[in-house]
């Protein structure tokens, strides 16, 4: 799922919670990659020639907020899956940070030497705001079980949060489990 600056956080969270309810064994990946049509373009030109960051770089904090809200809300929805210690386990999180190289259509046609000469001339004229060629991206994968193949790729791992149940809640779940096993 691509996180964009114009999307509603509530819609992202609702989609993710529904996804985990319908697909308990699958993982969900959220990312800030530029849209497919923008991947071959350079940073969006700013009005009045002011340099600014690429929109996909600006959405990284938004992605982190969405992921934390999803993890917190997912823990709240757990009530029937009880582990042995009386704790409910949340989602495993894998983070990948990288960069994506983007080029202008003009720069793709020019050879590297022409581009280098133009940059040297701009630097000598005092114009230090060169075009952005790389865009920071982030990818977060959430799942109910561990995925060791992601850690082999270099992703960082964050353990799931645990929600402790009160003694009364554990007793209610035990009674409910007994009723379900006796009723059939």
Structure description:
- By secondary structure, the protein is of the alpha+beta class.
- It has one domain.
- The chain is built from seven helices and six strands; from the N terminus they run αβααββααβαββα.
- The strands form two sheets. A four-stranded antiparallel sheet has the order 1-4-3-5. It has a two-stranded antiparallel ribbon with strand order 2-6.
- α1 crosses α3.
- The longest helix is centred in the middle third of the chain and has 18 residues.
Order of helices and strands: HEHHEEHHEHEEH
Helix content: 40-55%
Task: Assess the beta-strand content as a share of residues.
Answer: 15-25%
Describe the strand arrangement of the main beta sheet, using strand numbers: 1-4-3-5
Query: What global shape is seen?
Result: elongated
Distance between the termini: 41 Å
Mean pLDDT: 78
| Count of individual beta strands | 6
Largest sheet: 4 strands, antiparallel
Radius of gyration (CA) equals 23 Å
Number of helices: 7
Number of domains: 1
Structural classification: alpha+beta
Q: Which runs of at least 5 residues are low in confidence (pLDDT < 50)?
A: 42-47, 81-85
Summary?
The protein is 41% helix and 18% strand. It is an alpha+beta fold and 184 residues long.
What are the salient characteristics of this protein?
two-stranded antiparallel ribbon, 4-stranded antiparallel sheet, alpha+beta, 184 residues, 6 strands, single chain, 7 helices, elongated
Topology:
Blueprint lengths: L8 H14 L5 E4 L23 H4 L1 H18 L9 E3 L2 E10 L3 H5 L2 H13 L9 E10 L4 H5 L3 E3 L3 E3 L2 H16 L2
Antiparallel strand pairs: 1-4, 2-6, 3-4, 3-5
Helix pairs in contact: 1-3
């Amino acid at each position: 799922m691509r996180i964009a600056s114009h999307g509603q956080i509530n819609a992202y969270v609702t989609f993710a919670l529904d996804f985990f309810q319908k697909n308990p064994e699958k993982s969900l990946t959220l990312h800030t990659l530029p849209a497919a049509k923008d991947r071959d373009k350079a940073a969006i030109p700013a009005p009045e020639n002011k340099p600014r960051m690429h929109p996909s770089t600006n959405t990284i904090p938004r992605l982190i907020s969405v992921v934390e809200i999803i993890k917190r809300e997912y823990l709240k929805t757990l009530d029937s899956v009880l582990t042995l210690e009386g704790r409910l386990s949340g989602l495993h999180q894998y983070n990948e940070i990288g960069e994506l190289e983007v080029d202008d259509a003009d720069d793709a046609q020019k050879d590297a030497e022409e581009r280098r000469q133009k940059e040297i001339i701009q630097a000598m004229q005092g114009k230090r705001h060169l075009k952005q060629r790389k865009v920071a991206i982030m990818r977060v994968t959430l799942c109910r079980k561990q995925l060791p193949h992601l850690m082999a790729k270099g992703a960082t791992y964050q353990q799931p949060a645990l929600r402790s149940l009160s003694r009364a809640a554990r007793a209610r779940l035990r009674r409910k489990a007994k009723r379900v096993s006796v009723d059939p």
